[in-house]
Amino acid sequence: MLEGGRRRLPWRLFLQMSVTDQVIECLLEAARWAASADNMQPWRFRWDGATLRLLFIDDGKEGAFGIDSPATLLAFGGVIENVTRMAEATGCQLYEAVIFPAGDDKNCVFRCRIDAAAPGAPRADWRTHPLFSRHTNRLPYADRALPDELVGELAALAQGEARCRLLVDAPSVQRWAGLVREGSSLRFRNRLAHIALDASLRMTEAEAARGDGLDVATFFLPPGAKSMLSYTRSWPRMAMLNRIGLYKLFASIEADLVRKGPGLVLVTGAAGRQGALDAGQLLVRAWTRLNQAGLAVQPYYVVPDQIFRLKDGTVPEEARAEALALERASQAALPAGATLYMVLRVGYPKKPAVRSRRLTLSEVAAADA
Ligand SMILES: Cc1cc2nc3c(=O)[nH]c(=O)nc-3n(C[C@H](O)[C@H](O)[C@H](O)COP(=O)(O)O)c2cc1C
Questions:
Q1: Distance CA 163, CA 182 (A)
Q2: Ligand 1: distance of its center to the CA of 137 in Å?
Q3: Which of 3, 6, 29, 39 to mutate to test the pocket of ligand 1 (most atoms within 8 A of CB)?
Q4: Atom of ligand 1 nearest to the CA of 287
Q5: Per-residue confidence of the chain (369 residues) as pLDDT tens digits?
Q6: Residue whose CA lies nearest to ligand 1 atom number 30
Q7: Domains of the chain (ranges, CATH numbers)
Q8: Is 44 in the pocket of ligand 1 (CB under 6 A)?
Q9: Ligand 1 atom 26 nearest Cα
Q10: In this structure, are residues 127 and 347 in contact, taking their beta carbons and an 8 Å threshold?
């Protein structure tokens, strides 16, 4: 199930670890396998004997998401969700998740108590926890309706003000496919977004083996598309081809699978830091649940991303009117006052996905950030 650079402790060594070490190992593994935008894993984890800290790592690259960007906060929310679920499964009492303690803008802190009265070591099968099976599937999905009960099941999930809603009716799916196309058309003309995507791409097996970034083996690439992707990695080249409308072609390709359905899940929540963290928790909870039910999931962040960029001023002047129109159209399709955090394409898989990798435990469980 899990591949890539995951560090597996030899069984005998695991038996020699103290109960606390074993529990912390489970929590760190749960944290490490969380989802992040472009699989950039902008974090390190530090256990100091009483507190598990999640530290933001700023790679300093132009275009990278910062500590307060909703993309980072969604990913942090996903870590909180994974750690919380694993703590429950291992009898470790997570009695506090302090997000960004006062005076510290980079750390999210979990305080854990290993319950002395609990049976002790984590169950031998903790690695089969559903959180490790959550994954992205970017391939086309089967033309098969989703189960009716999923609508109610997803609507019942909540975290703070975050909610998710499953859309299966054709007009709604087409409406959102149109918004994804518009968001994507803006994205392919955005220099910063293009540079960030380029920095995350892993085109070869050797590059993917580094354990972070977007392994192109996980993409759905029709014949010729990989060469096209390579060719357009340079922003000046992309900008030049955009003059003859390349961004429109890319945006149509990106929206095409959304248009084919069968369903979409919208994750919404309150605006602001806590709202984004809650949405990230709920996103991962719903996603894990969907994968557990045998459904495939692909996030499309492009619509919320362009709207957030409009707010932080990173949409180029000439595209602002279009981004504003996207914001209005997306707002009109949402409950009043809700902030859109994610659009998920959901369906029955035709084929299993190639799984993304992760940085190793020793790389992310750093003694110092
Ligand atoms: C905030 C956020 C934004 C994401 N945006 C996209 C997206 O627009 N398109 C996509 O295919 N995957 C997207 N993903 C999925 C990540 O690329 C994926 O989770 C990561 O590569 C790890 O792979 P896994 O989900 O299979 O574990 C996003 C994930 C997060 C947390």
A1: 24
A2: 10
A3: 39
A4: 25
A5: 333 334 555 555 555 677 778 888 999 999 999 999 999 999 999 888 888 889 999 888 888 999 999 999 999 999 999 999 998 888 787 878 888 888 888 888 888 777 655 556 787 889 999 999 999 999 999 999 999 999 999 999 999 999 999 999 999 999 999 999 999 999 999 999 999 999 999 999 999 999 999 999 999 998 899 999 999 999 999 999 999 999 999 999 999 999 998 999 999 999 999 999 999 999 999 999 999 999 999 999 999 999 999 999 999 999 999 999 999 999 999 999 999 999 999 999 999 999 999 999 999 996 654
A6: 37
A7: 14-134 (3.40.109.10), 149-347 (3.40.109.10)
A8: no
A9: 135
A10: no
Residue 239, classified by CB atoms within 10 Å of its CB into exposed (0-12), middle (13-18) or buried (19+), is: middle
Residues 6 or more apart whose CB falls under 8 angstroms from that of 368 comprise 46
Helix (H) or strand (E) holding 296: strand 296-300
* 72 close to ligand 1 (CB < 6 Angstrom): no
CA of 43 to the centre of ligand 1 (A): 15
Ligand 1, atom 12, residue with closest C-alpha: 299
Distance from the alpha carbon of residue 280 to the mean position of ligand 1, in angstroms: 12
- The response to whether residue 75 sits with its C-beta less than 6 Å from ligand 1 reads yes
- The alpha carbon of 91 and the centre of ligand 1 are apart by a number of angstroms equal to 30
Torsion of CA 284, 289, 291, 294, to 10 degrees: -170
As a whole number of Å, the end-to-end CA separation of the chain is 30
Q: Atom 21 of ligand 1 has which residue's CA nearest to it?
A: 39
Which neighbouring-strand residues pair with 296? 347
In the beta sheet, which residues pair with residue 215?
A: 202
